[in-house]
Amino acid sequence: MSTSYWRGAAEDEAMQDEHGFIWKAMLDTIDTDLKGSRVLDAGCNRGGFLRLLVDAAGIAEGYGYDPAPGAITDARSIAGARPLTFEVADTVPEGWGDFDVAFSHEVLYLLENLPAHATDLFGALRPGGSYFAVMGVHAESPLMSSWHAQSAVELGLPKLYELDVVARNFEHAGFSVSVANLKLGFVPVSGYRHGHDHRRDLLAWLDYYSREKVLLRFTRPSSSP
């Protein structure tokens, strides 16, 4: 694994380009008006999702962190005049907080310390704020379970989490937890046959996106201190 990027500069760029239909599905699924909001992106990579939120959703400010310094350098250079801030970090940087909404896409399965992440995100959100996390790499996904078994050692991945375990960790941190299927239209097939493609057949590919890849909502209670 690259120490500057998740996979490498070209691979990370291609990966972010391919996430467009997932990002749209996330925005179509959530029940939160993002206009004028202050948003955190955990594991932002090259900042594509936050750029989309500025351009299409009208957020007031976006903050993203990622442990890959090359990706953060790219995120800063591509941001232009948008109100976006990026930092190299494994968790919410010191001094960041008071967010209305937080997002992550396929970050939870990478974390060794899930309870710490849940606690950090709880502290970063305003009371009443929500953290929306897309997770497809989990123990209930046959496709991703197979991929994880083949790739865990090479990529240094932690054990595969069950969705119930994820939910319990966030409940223990103080969140209320809910889950939804993503509101997807057509799922792309052509052009998805490179190293990031775990597809075995079209039905497995469709089942993964329509059923197994879920959107978790972790909401900090309005009355929390």
Describe the structure.
- The chain is built from 8 helices and 7 strands, in the order ααβαβαββαβααβαβ.
- The protein is an alpha/beta fold.
Q: Point out poorly predicted stretches.
A: none
DSSP, total strands: 7
The whole-number mean of residue pLDDT values reads 89
Task: Report the order of strands and helices.
Answer: HHEHEHEEHEHHEHE
Q: How is the largest sheet built, in terms of strand order? A: 3-2-1-4-5-7-6
For the CA atoms, what is the radius of gyration? 17 Å
How many helix segments? 8
| Main pleated sheet | 7 strands, mixed
Principal-axis shape equals: globular
Strand content: 15-25%
The helix/strand class is alpha/beta
Terminal CA distance: 40 Å
Portion of residues in helices? 25-40%
Topology summary:
Blueprint: H1 9-18, H2 20-29, E1 38-42, H3 48-57, E2 61-66, H4 69-78, E3 84-88, E4 99-105, H5 114-124, E5 125-135, H6 142-155, H7 163-172, E6 176-181, H8 202-212, E7 214-219
Parallel strand pairs: 1-2, 1-4, 2-3, 4-5
Antiparallel strand pairs: 5-7, 6-7
Helix pairs in contact: 5-7
Give the structure's gist in a few sentences.
The chain is of the alpha/beta class.
Provide the descriptors you would attach to this structure in a database record.
alpha/beta, seven-stranded mixed beta sheet
